[in-house]
Amino acid sequence: MDFIRRLFGMFSTHLAMDLGTANTLIYMKGEGIILNEPSVVAIDNNTGNVIAVGREAKEYIGRTPPNISAIRPLKDGVIADFDVTKAMIKYFLTVVRRDRKVQKPKMVVGVPSGITMVEKKAVVDACFQVGVRDVYLIEEPMAAAIGAEMPIELPRGNMVVDIGGGTTEVAIISLSATAYSESLRVAGDEIDESIIRYLQKKHQIAIGPIAAEKIKIGGASVHQTDDREESFTLVGKDLLTGAPKNTRVTKDEIREAIDEPVSAIIDSIRRALEKLPPEFASDLNESGMVLTGGGALLDGLDRRIEKETGISVHVNDEPLLSVVLGAGRSLEDMPRYRKVFIN
Hints:
Elements: H1 2-10, E1 15-19, E2 23-28, E3 32-38, E4 41-44, E5 50-53, H2 55-58, E6 68-71, E7 74-75, E8 78-79, H3 82-98, E9 106-111, H4 117-129, E10 134-139, H5 140-147, E11 158-163, E12 168-174, E13 177-184, H6 188-203, E14 205-206, H7 209-219, E15 231-238, E16 244-250, H8 251-274, H9 278-287, E17 289-292, H10 301-309, E18 313-315, H11 322-332, H12 334-337, E19 341-342
Parallel strand pairs: 1-9, 9-10, 11-17, 17-18
Antiparallel strand pairs: 1-2, 2-3, 4-5, 4-6, 7-8, 10-19, 11-12, 12-13, 14-15, 15-16
């Protein structure tokens, strides 16, 4: 009997996916997270063939010859290049199936709360075309709230701010439904681009998106530092000569560089708070809000939000995994979470 159950389980395994602008994560029912790769595909422009996907393809960004393109097929959290996205999902599912017998799975997919019907159809069609049997969509802030173990089923306001690569999702959740949501297409990628633009204007030096991301992770803070001379060296291309150039940049300069997108994110949180019914305001005053997504790791962001809103802020223990863990939990217990799926 145990053998029969295991055999049945082999062919009824189901998956959850966080199809993110920066990274794609896949969760398998009964196992947890089994894949975490950058959402990047390298394509041969002459043949259209896929050369690399995920981590390997990310190494190609900014370093490709004319006949190869390194593409991030999702922009602002949704599919920008359908064919490349389909190829990427197919590759990741092939990796998942390599050591596991996964035949025509059900899949829960996290999508931005502001997704349009056309964008929903693109996600669902991409999944169907790579062999997924049934597709269930869940809004990313709802998935993030479930992943952060917030009490979404209770009649009280739960505020989650999910700052990903392409979108910032601000939502108030109560009784397993979204009472308010805003999907702001300003997030980690826009912070990287702000660093690139600032260095071009202030230091006449060009850097690529990978270098900007490293600066964001290693040297960016939203708070003014005590030591105004605290700095680091970066290498880029001199815009005047085209030669490599070493430049000293202070952390306060990076803080100045990222202030505009950070302020836009905080403004979206303020808008949510302004529209809250009084009862929800009381709930949030008691429980605070939860930050998830990679942007939640930006140094000092939680303290600045607290200072500007007056509401306590908690950074989830695993902010990068919140959406896929929440989608996975909804997959594990579909009867309990049936209200959270969207059409």
